[in-house]
Each structure stands twice: as C-alpha cells, then as structure tokens.
C-alpha cells in the first residue's frame, strides 16, 4: 500500500478507523525527512496491512502543534486508536522494521491493563 497524506480533517478517522497506523510528520525543506521518505515508502509496500500516512507539517501546522511535534521527521505509531510509539529523527530501514514488528506484536489490552495496575 502506498502512503496516504493526512490532514486535520481526516487524521482522527484514519487513526481510529484502522488497526495500525504509522504517521511520518515531515516538511519538504527538511533533509532528514527527505532521507527517511524512501525508507518509509518501501516499508509501506512491504506491509500492506498497515496504513502508512504522512503529515506535511508546513501545510498542517495546527495538526503538528496538536500532536506536539517539535522536531521532524517524527514517526508516530498508533494501534487500536492509541498512540504507542513516538520518536523524532530519521530511522534506518532496519530500525523502522523493528518498530513495526514491536507495534504489530504489542498486546494492547495487556498494555492497558498493566498501565492501570502500575
């Protein structure tokens, strides 16, 4: 699946309407963003069961502010509508794969239960 562009209008629906969503917050002037873009796109082709989305922080400044983006690129991972990972910086392909597998393997119900009992 190719990446999709997200805006404030469809962000919430995309996050809550899909089991797993990876979001790349980026800007066209950002060198590390341009380096990460083909890695993110290649992963989207390999993992067709995951929604890979991009948010242009220049065009969607209010959305970026609401997501508390302070550095780009920032990768966020959502599972079951919940934010489960957020990290600034361009990831190499192997690190992105590790994030994908960790999020895919995350038992969200157990994580929520563990958080309640902590």
Automatic annotation (TrEMBL):
The UniProt entry, under Pfam families, shows: Thioredoxin
What Gene3D superfamilies does this protein map onto? Glutaredoxin
Q: Which InterPro entries match?
A: Thioredoxin, Thioredoxin-like_sf, Thioredoxin_CS, Thioredoxin_domain
Q: Which residues form the Thioredoxin domain?
A: 1-105
The alphabetized UniProt keywords are: Disulfide bond, Electron transport, Redox-active center, Transport
Q: What does the similarity note say?
A: Belongs to the thioredoxin family.
**What is this protein identified as?**
Thioredoxin
């Amino acid at each position: 699946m190719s990446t999709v562009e997200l805006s404030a209008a469809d962000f919430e629906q995309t996050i809550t309407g899909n089991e797993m969503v990876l979001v790349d917050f980026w800007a066209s002037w950002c060198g590390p963003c341009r380096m990460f873009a083909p890695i993110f796109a290649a992963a989207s082709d390999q993992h067709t069961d995951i929604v890979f989305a991009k948010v242009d922080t220049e065009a969607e400044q209010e959305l970026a502010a609401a997501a508390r983006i302070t550095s780009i690129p920032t990768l966020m991972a959502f599972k079951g509508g919940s934010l489960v990972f957020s990290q600034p910086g361009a990831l190499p392909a192997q690190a992105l794969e590790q994030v994908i597998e960790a999020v895919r393997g995350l038992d969200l119900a157990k994580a929520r239960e563990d958080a309640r009992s902590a």
